[in-house]
Amino acid sequence: MTEPLDMTLDELRAALGPLLPGEAAFDGWSEEAAGAAARALGIPADRARLAFPDGAVGMIDAWFGSIDRAMAEALPPETLAAMKIRVRITALVRARLEAAAPHREALRRALAILALPTNAATGAKLGWRAADAMWRLAGDDATGLAHYTKRLTLAAVYGSTMLVFLDDESDGFSDTYAFLDRRIENVMQFEKFKARLKPDPDRHFSPARFLGRLRYPA
């Protein structure tokens, strides 16, 4: 393993990512938090500042990246392969929440920062990245429109579940996981409904038929 003082900035961001939320819960997503995480890693605080020129947003990005990695480590391909797709997705969302569970206050502060109008694009990008990581680990190989709709749907499920998770005081986050199960069930029912719809060729848009009707109205 590369020594902290010899790390590139990319390596340093990855190493600091999981350390940052423990400091951000008290100091916010600030230079003070980055400096404390740097000292815990054994490097000067100014080195951490170089790693995050974009400040709080970059620090949050690094933490969320560490959650991506923790999720992948918790659910390797051989484990996921034995599950049905619905169970895979549920397990992946739960793995992300479990990785964030010790740092709910830091998560609350992070989401508040990403909700600012100036950070909305970054927040959307990070939500998409999380959904994409989950679908890829689940073995999804969809292309075209299905690729995008799956990720948008999962990002919405994950986002709404996080909001429940932030204020959940139930044992073992049972309320959060019950909410997640209901949301997944809603999505699965909708997918089954779409699958039952048989496309009607007569109802497909035909430019020739449309122009013909304009010329010879019924």
Structure characteristics:
218 residues; mainly alpha; 12 helices; 72% helix; 0% strand; Ubiquinone biosynthesis protein COQ9; ubiquinone biosynthesis; Ubiq_biosynth_COQ9; ubiquinone; lipid-binding
Notes on the protein architecture:
With 218 residues, this protein is mainly alpha-helical. It has a domain at 85-196. 72% of the residues lie in helices and 0% in strands. The chain has helices at 9-16, 20-27, 31-41, 45-51, 56-74, 77-81, 85-100, 104-114, 120-137, 144-166, 174-196, 207-215. Helix 3 (31-41) packs across helix 4 (45-51), helix 9 crosses helix 10 and helix 10 packs antiparallel against helix 11. The mean pLDDT is 89.
Summarize it:
With 218 residues, the chain is mostly helical. The protein contains 12 helices and no strands.
Class by SSE composition = mainly alpha
Unreliably modeled segments? none
Q: Please provide the count of β strands.
A: 0
User: Over all CA atoms, what is the radius of gyration?
Assistant: 22 Å
What is the average of the pLDDT values? 89
Largest sheet: none
Task: Summarize the amount of helix as a percent range.
Answer: over 70%
Instruction: Sketch the topology as an H/E string, one letter per element.
Output: HHHHHHHHHHHH
Number of helices: 12
For the termini, the CA-CA separation is 76 Å
Rough shape?
A: globular
Percentage of residues in DSSP E strands: under 5%
Write the layout of secondary structure elements.
Blueprint: H1 9-16, H2 20-27, H3 31-41, H4 45-51, H5 56-74, H6 77-81, H7 85-100, H8 104-114, H9 120-137, H10 144-166, H11 174-196, H12 207-215
Helix pairs in contact: 1-5, 2-3, 2-8, 3-4, 5-7, 5-9, 7-11, 9-10, 10-11
